[in-house]
Amino acid sequence: MTSRERVMKALAFEPTDRVPRDLGGMLSTGISCFAYPDLVKALGLPPRRPKVHDTGQMLALPDLDVLDALGCDVVSVFMHLGVSNAFDQFDPWHPYDFGGRLKALVRNPADFETLDDGTITQSNGQLRMPPGAYVFDAEHGGQAFSLTEDLPRPDVKAFEKGLRQSRLSDNALADVVSLCRRARESTDRAIFFNGPTAGIAIAAHGGLAIFPLLCMTEADLVAELHEVALSHAEHEVGRLLEAIHPYIDIYMVNADDWGLQNQTLAPPALYETLFLPYYRRINRTIHRAAPNVKTFLHSCGAIYDLIDLVIDSGFDILNPVQWTAGGHPFPAWKERCRGRIALWGGGVDTQKTLPFGTVEEVEAEVRKVVDCLSEGGGYVFNSIHNILAEIPAEKVIAMYKAAGERPLR
After folding, report:
1. Is 3-31+70-83+150-405 a domain of CATH 3.40.50.1100?
2. pLDDT of residue 148
3. Domain residues of the chain, as ranges?
4. Where are the beta strands (DSSP E) in 83-145?
5. DSSP tag of 278
6. Contact 42, 49 (CB under 8 A)
7. Could you give the 3-state DSSP secondary structure of residue 64?
8. Distance between CA atoms of 310 and 306, rounded to whole angstroms?
């Protein structure tokens, strides 16, 4: 059974020879570029500069020999970056050392500036990584909010104009097709495509504090925004998939964080009225254009109460399976989702067990979770979110080894 067959059968709730595994298929299943060199060394592989494809979260694009060593079954195509780890790419990458902190490869070293105190900035100084930090951030997370001022109202016409101007040109489409085709020809792993998203998210306009309030106070405005976004997404995604569907397996529809640590960010009824109809439309568009492609939703936090609505939206895969949030353990997630939607992630608690537990505790948790979530299929192994900079390589290796040991049930 090839890796691609293993992943696609698991996502279809069909028997496989083992649980499929992922590292870095999308931007919430990856590993910090600061942790990556130690992982490469611990695996006994030749040293190399990590390719930092997400320079906000500072994630490393996993190399093929690392995926081989960990038994991973997924590779990525990142359309807007023009990069993939399905084959060796050299042209997009250039050396940069992040102020002497990390010898790495980035796409454009000119994007960064090192200040006198060692802080590194990008995006014209809006994003900052102080000397002791491992990711870039902005003041207020870039989402300032004031309780004493009126909520900012998005300009629908300006939003629509911006989307029209961002449409994929014929030349750009040809480049994407070439990238996806080469990825398909280079590997028998499942290909995770990260391209145009659905364009709707609870943090889309103004941030996590502002947009949920707009949803509750100005539902008609939000519906208008979503109609504009979905019309654009249907056009772009339909056109794109007509060309690339033979070469990809999983489509990253959106990263839409609906959960806090203990509850949903907004009432489930709000999702049902303002989000579900639009998500249902984009999922239908994708499935009609590419019946072989599985649709993927990333939504962090305590979203257990939204699972039925996510399924009704037409998604094939839900990630990151954050069963540690909201008081519903992983067996409850499995029972709610069994045979209805595949789960991708959830394999170990990245907030407690992975950073603070022993290697033995990491292995034990992975075994328990994988035994449960993989029962009857519908499961791809990954941790509950990205592997952070402070995580030692031995724990990363232990979690993937433990996942690979589990017999299918």
Report:
1. no
2. 84
3. 3-31+70-83+150-405
4. 83-84, 94-96, 104-106, 113-114, 120-122, 127-129
5. H
6. no
7. helix
8. 6
Identify the pLDDT of residue 406: 61
Sorting pLDDT into bands at 50, 70 and 90, what band is 139? confident
This prediction's pTM: 0.96
Q: Is pLDDT above 90 for 326?
A: yes
Which neighbouring-strand residues pair with 294? 250
Q: In angstroms, rounded to a whole number, what is the distance separating the alpha carbons of residues 311 and 314?
A: 5
CA–CA distance, 39 with 33 (Å, rounded to integer)? 10
Instruction: Check residue 381 and report its DSSP letter.
Output: B
Residue 260 bridge partners (DSSP): none
Mean pLDDT in the chain?
95
For residue 374 the two structure tokens come to 């993989």
Q: What is the pLDDT at residue 407?
A: 63
3-state secondary structure 337-363: HCCCCEEECCCCCCCCHHHHCCHHHHH
Picking from 150-159, 165-174, 314-323, which range would have the lowest pLDDT averaged per residue?
Answer: 150-159
Residue whose C-alpha is closest to residue 322's, from 302, 340, 341: 302
Query: Which tokens go with 87?
Result: 């084959």
